[in-house]
Design goal:
The complex is a heterodimer. Chain A is α/β, with parallel strands linked by helices. Chain A is built from 14 helices and five strands. The longest helix of chain B has 32 residues, at 171-202. The chains are: A alpha/beta, B alpha/beta.
Chain lengths: 375, 368
């Protein structure tokens, strides 16, 4: 036990000695947290839209008004002429171009079904799809109200008309703040970087300078060396996580309803997998650069397949199966459920079991490989 | 002669790169992996949202609404229950992402009054999908009401939408040029700063500096090999994207390659700049990750649209070279833009590039 303690102390001292490293570990992630908390949203805002109103009646102007009143779109002022609308999209001046045909108001009145044309810059297909959804909704609302207006003029047909009005509520996050959903993701990524990357770097660095061999010839067992290499980064990771959570609570006002001891326990379980991966990576590579690339490779895969930005249900079945091997998937789920819903162990036990299983497997494999590699 | 001194330096660097096939392999695997994930696995448009339905009405009208929901591809009805109190259990047990509650008097109020209400409750833990769920359902109900109101067949206005530049809505077409931008900055900034830091760590930098080689020759000796490496990997990604994912190439190769070279220069300059600040490989890695790679991924419009960010971040995004390069490469490849449309981002990128190169050369001289 004492031997491990010395190793841990040495490792911590090595990290603490390097002021630049400390800055990078503690200050930069906070900035990232702040920036990313605001930057990442899959919702859209202020999308540039050009509306060509060839009708120029009060009805068409009312429709244009509706687009200018939402925060989703920013109206672009530009002269329109038929056939030249595409060039605005081509030049990147607008993302959407909506054309209201001439005689729109008249055709609407006589039920001649005027056609509204929407052109979208589809480069970013995801954003465009969301934007198109908002366009459609504004148009539908417009139609609904124009029908309602007609009804007022002709109350005798009102009886045959049915309108369904959804009354929406959102639980756990009534204002639909995306930070609530992003912060848990960012915290888990920070924790992964610290534990997986720094562990592998620390081991590989010793190998690069040759001090790992020196450690090996001491009476220390490889288990003790692994403990000495992982405990400091587990500690740093948890400290960093607490700081990030404090920022989340104080700055972003994210509620943490669930139990903190449970959170600590689950985080420790999660770290088991990332530390294990760190050791595993260190056995695969020879230089720090390779360790970095390898960790980065894992990290990107984990993030993209974790449900952080992209819901897992939308992925093809075979990819969904792969995500079961992704520890980040479980941890992000745990953080979200625990922070916002206050989920307890009775709900989160499947995640806990998966993490435990993954952690035990990865850690054992990594230790075995480490043993073989150094022996 | 400059050449006789620089060429051995360049050769030495190439030998370093060649001796490390694992790093090279990962550098090639990374874009491949991202292309595969974005091309096959990722789809932002939510489909198959798990929906719970609580039908208290049990009338033809309510069944009609349920049929409408079923018919849309957005929702999978995973649960039906009779007691609205069970809603909470739906969310805590993560059975459904949203719940629709049709009140008992639904059919009656549809007939009597102009408006009949339906309850929609979404799980806000995932704020983005909750927003989409609300939008989809509201749109669905609106559309249904409209078809009912206008005589049961169609809507009073027909909407015709067309997606330009990406008619099949493939995310890979959007992401492949983006991967080029990210990878170039990774190689330029990260690899360069790490190799220089390694020379400092092992003490070979001092050896180089006491030799008659001038600082700018050291810089060139470091920059040229990574320029070549970055450029070949960029070409590899572009070709692969063209062949495998059918990413179009609408514009001119000449402009594209020219801007690629310039962008690589800019990222190399950033890498050199970082290397003058740091002493160890670890710090160089962390700093280039956090200061260049992450902003290039998050704030450049690589995935998340800049227009939707708060104002201060939009301003910051302008000083990130990747922001401008992304406009250029996507403009050229997907739209066929020329210099006429792209001169603003091109000028901005050039300006940023020259600034970084100047600062890097100056600091490099001072530091060494």
């Amino acid at each position: 036990m004492k031997k491990i303690w010395y190793l841990v102390k040495k490792e911590l001292r090595q990290v603490m000695r390097d002021i630049n490293m400390l800055r990078v570990i503690f200050v930069v992630p906070m900035i990232q947290l702040m920036v990313l908390g605001y930057a990442i949203t899959t919702d859209i805002k202020n999308i540039d839209i050009l509306i060509c109103d060839f009708d120029q009646t009060s009805v068409s102007r009312d429709l244009v008004e509706r687009f200018s009143h939402t925060e989703y779109f920013t109206l672009i002022e530009a002269p329109c002429s038929a056939g030249h609308i595409e060039k605005y999209l081509f030049a990147g001046k607008a993302v959407i171009a909506l054309t209201i045909p001439a005689n729109f108001a008249r055709d609407l009145k006589t039920s001649d079904k005027p056609e509204i044309q929407i052109l979208l810059d589809g480069q970013n297909s995801n954003t465009s799809a969301v934007a198109l959804g908002y366009c459609n909704r504004i148009l539908l609302e417009f139609m609904q109200e124009s029908i309602a207006r007609d009804l007022q003029k002709a109350p005798q047909i009102a009886r045959s008309v049915h309108m369904i009005e959804p009354v929406s509520r959102v639980w756990y996050n009534p204002e639909l703040k995306s930070v609530y959903y992003m912060i848990p993701g960012i915290i888990s990524i920070l924790l992964t970087i610290i534990t997986m990357l720094l562990t592998s770097l620390a081991i590989v660095k010793e190998r690069e300078i040759g001090t790992l061999e020196q450690l090996m010839v001491t009476p220390l067992t490889s288990g003790q060396i692994i403990a000495g290499k992982t405990i400091p980064f587990a500690f740093l990771g948890l400290v960093e996580m607490s700081i990030a959570m404090t920022v989340g609570v104080l700055w972003f006002k994210i509620p943490i309803i669930g139990s903190l001891p449970l959170l600590a326990g689950l985080s420790a379980t999660f770290i088991l997998t990332t530390l294990g991966l760190g050791i595993f990576i260190s056995t695969l590579v020879n230089t720090q650069q390779q360790a970095l690339f390898m960790s980065w490779f894992f990290l990107v895969t984990f993030i993209l397949l974790s449900g952080f930005f992209y819901p897992i249900e939308n992925m093809p079945k075979w990819v969904q199966v792969i995500t079961y091997g992704n520890p980040l998937r479980y941890f992000i789920e745990i953080l979200r459920e625990l922070f916002l819903k206050g989920a307890g162990i009775s709900v989160l036990w499947p995640e806990l079991c998966s993490l435990l299983g993954l952690g035990a497997t990865i850690f054992t494999l990594a230790t075995l490989r480490f043993h073989k590699r150094t022996a | 002669m400059i050449n006789t001194r620089i060429i051995p330096l360049i050769r030495k660097e190439f030998i370093h790169i060649r001796r490390d096939p694992r790093s090279l392999l990962i550098l090639l695997m990374m874009p491949l992996l991202m292309m595969v994930i974005f091309g096959y696995a990722i789809n932002m448009d939510l489909k198959h949202i798990r929906l719970g339905i609580c039908d208290l009405s049990r009338t033809p009208a309510s069944r009609d609404i349920i049929e409408t929901i079923k018919a849309s591809t957005y929702f999978d009805i995973v649960a039906r229950f009779d007691n609205p109190r069970q809603t909470e259990a739906m969310f805590t047990n993560r059975v459904a992402r949203a719940v629709v509650i049709i009140p008992a008097d639904f059919q009656r109020s549809l007939k009597r009054s102009v408006k009949a209400q339906i309850g929609v409750i979404a799980d806000g833990t995932d704020a983005n999908s909750a927003t989409l769920v609300q939008n989809y359902l509201e749109g669905l109900f609106l559309a249904r009401s409209l078809t009912m109101a206008s005589g049961g067949n169609s809507m009073p206005v027909s909407i015709k939408a067309r997606m330009l530049y990406n008619p099949d809505m493939e995310s890979s077409i959007f992401i492949v040029p983006g991967i080029v931008a990210i990878l170039l900055i990774m190689i330029g900034a990260l690899l360069t700063s790490v190799t220089i830091a390694r020379e400092k760590e092992t003490g070979t930098m001092e050896q180089i500096l006491v030799s008659p080689i001038r600082p700018y020759e050291v810089v060139l000796g470091k920059a040229v090999p990574y320029l070549v490496l970055a450029f070949s990997i960029a070409l590899f990604i572009i070709f692969l994207g063209r062949i495998w994912f059918h990413v179009p190439m609408m514009g001119s190769w000449l402009w594209l390659l020219l801007f690629c070279v310039f962008y690589v220069f800019t990222s190399l300059a950033i890498g050199l700049l970082i290397s003058t600040v740091v002493a160890t490989q670890q710090v160089a890695m962390m700093l280039s990750l956090v200061a260049t790679v992450l902003p290039s991924v998050m704030l450049s419009g690589f995935v998340f649209p800049i227009a939707s960010m708060p104002r201060p971040l939009q301003i910051i995004s302008n000083i990130i070279p990747a922001t401008h390069f992304l406009k250029i490469i996507r403009g050229i490849m997907l739209k066929g833009n020329g210099l006429e449309e792209l001169w603003i981002p091109a000028a901005a990128m050039t300006g940023i590039g020259i600034f970084f190169i100047a600062v890097a050369v100056k600091r490099f001289k001072l530091k060494l």
